[in-house]
Specification:
The chain is of the alpha+beta class. It is 32% helix and 29% strand. It binds zinc ion.
Length: 378
């Protein structure tokens, strides 16, 4: 039923259309013309008013058995860069680039799989519920498309996000994430002429960072300091530095505790670096901003969404397992908005690097699993 040659050529067409964050319109219009030809109704929301992109989210509906509860299939249109002037290197079932750009299988493999799933269902007249196909924009910059989606356009209350690596794993959970921005203000001064009249903001920040435990904090929690920016010249004591980091956890209390702990280290460091100039006390200051990127979700392994995949896998003699994810995806936002969603893999490997590649066989497995799920949906 699944036509691997067609899946491959669709996928390669998608790879050739550049779709960076905020520049997804060309890909959206190509995909929507395919969906229209298949007979789906198409809607585009106005999420781009918030994302600043050239198109909103693409939401298409395949009508189906109204007696069955609708189901959502989701992937994202945007890719990380560079992807312009892509040159593909194909060896049997393995597709990669020549090494000069990112492949963009994240998440064009998900899109290609969804298109093949719909084609097979339609041409074989397989029983199916109404299917909401949701292709989001600006996923890679903080799930902005999903966050700003017009949810009145989606009927489904359950769904599958195709945005992971192995097709043989169902990702049933993802953590909370806080993003942290810290601005440290010291006091600028000439490093050679007035070395004792400055407060070095880089040193204040470094002192704090050195005391923050990062990496795997406990089984459920991770933390990272990822960006540090500051200073203007070697002869100037830097008066300002910006530090960005994040905390993730499956436990909201641990998430907040670690977030506060990081803040405390910066405040503690400020106290250490205060100085006296001409009888006046100068102390560095810190501005701490925390943004909740997304909330965690956990789907029970006995949930119909998971059980159905396992049933289909066993009928296809495939071995699969469930796993908790370590990152955020559109699924976090869908779950928050009341669409119970798990994440499936469409085969992408080494994502966000120029060595990204995919094995077509993995895409075929993903398509087979989801055709089985949708055509047996009750
Ligand atoms: Zn992705």
């Amino acid at each position: 039923m699944v036509r691997k040659d067609r899946l491959k050529s669709t996928f390669m067409e998608l790879l050739r259309i550049n779709s960076p964050v905020r520049g997804e319109a060309a890909l959206a219009s190509y995909v929507s013309s395919i969906l229209k030809d298949m007979g789906l109704s198409i809607l585009v929301d106005s999420a781009n008013r918030k994302t600043g992109g050239d198109t909103g989210n693409l939401i298409a509906n395949l009508s189906g058995d109204e007696g069955l509860s609708p189901i959502m299939l989701n992937a994202h249109l945007d890719t990380v860069e560079p992807t312009k002037n892509i040159v593909l290197d194909i060896e049997g079932d393995i597709i990669r680039t020549d090494g000069n750009s990112i492949l963009g299988a994240d998440d064009k493999s998900g899109i290609a799989c969804i298109l093949e799933i719909l084609r097979v269902i339609i041409e074989n007249n397989l029983p199916h519920p109404p299917v909401d196909v949701v292709f989001t924009v600006s996923e890679e910059i903080g799930l902005l498309g999903a966050k700003n989606m017009d949810y009145s356009m989606i009927k489904a209350k359950v769904g599958y996000t195709l945005d992971a690596c192995s097709p043989f794993e169902v990702i049933v959970g993802a953590p909370y994430q806080n993003s942290i921005t810290v601005e440290v203000r010291g006091k600028e001064s000439h490093a050679g002429c007035e070395p004792s009249k400055g407060i070095n903001a880089i040193k204040v920040a470094s002192n704090a960072i050195a005391k923050i435990t990062t990496g795997q904090i406990d089984r459920e929690t991770t933390a990272n300091i990822g960006v540090i920016k500051g200073g203007t010249a070697t002869n100037i004591i830097p008066g300002y530095v910006e530090v960005k980091g994040e905390v993730r956890s499956y436990d909201e209390k641990k998430l907040e505790r670690k977030t506060r702990e990081i803040e405390g280290k910066f405040e503690g460091s400020c106290k250490l670096f205060q100085i006296e100039i001409d009888g006046n006390i100068f102390a560095p200051t810190v501005r701490y901003e925390v943004e909740r990127e997304y909330n965690a979700f956990k789907i029970d392994k006995r949930d119909e969404l998971v059980k159905r995949v396992f049933d289909v896998a066993s009928s296809l003699n495939m071995k699969i397992l469930t796993r908790l994810g370590g990152g955020g995806s559109d699924a976090n936002i869908f779950n928050e908005k009341g669409i119970r969603t798990v994440i499936m893999g469409a085969g992408m490997k080494n994502i966000h690097t120029k060595s990204e590649y995919i094995n077509l066989e993995d895409m075929v497995a993903c398509v087979q699993l989801l055709i089985g799920v949708i055509s047996s949906w009750r």
